[in-house]
Write a sequence for this structure.
């Protein structure tokens, strides 16, 4: 996916409710599939957290089961996704949407979003660090 197309898809996702905070997109490229994750609402007082997720399979059919492949980790908690609001299974070339999780309370200093794709030996890991906000 070219940078222009990625930026356009990300802009659409943000416009439909994903406020990029912290606004850091992380990418992982492996086995011919690029995955880009941008955190949305991760506010400490939020009850639901979301992440904009874009998959680019370079023109191949993409049949990954999004809900079953992700897990959110923080302070010993392991949270499975609450919802996927986006393109359905079977897209060709790319797939984009918003992945939602019940927020971990209190918010940990670090979150780890793991993606275990079929056929990949290790999960892809996206880390988000908040730091010490109590100072």
């Amino acid at each position: 996916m070219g940078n222009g197309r990625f930026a356009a898809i990300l802009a659409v996702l943000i416009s439909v409710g994903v406020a990029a905070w912290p606004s850091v997109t992380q990418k992982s490229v492996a086995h011919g599939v690029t995955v880009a994750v941008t955190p949305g609402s991760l506010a400490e007082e939020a009850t639901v957290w979301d992440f904009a997720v874009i998959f680019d399979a370079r023109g191949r059919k993409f049949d990954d089961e999004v809900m079953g492949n992700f897990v959110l980790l923080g302070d010993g908690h392991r949270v499975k996704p609450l919802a996927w609001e986006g393109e359905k299974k079977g897209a060709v070339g790319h797939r984009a949407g918003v992945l939602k999780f019940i927020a971990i309370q209190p918010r940990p200093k670090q979150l780890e979003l793991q993606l275990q794709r079929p056929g990949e030996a290790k999960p892809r890991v996206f880390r988000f660090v908040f730091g010490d906000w109590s100072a």
User: Anything to note?
Assistant: The helical segments are 3-15, 66-69. The chain is about 15% helix and 45% strand. The two ends are 41 Å apart (CA to CA). The longest strand covers residues 48-62.
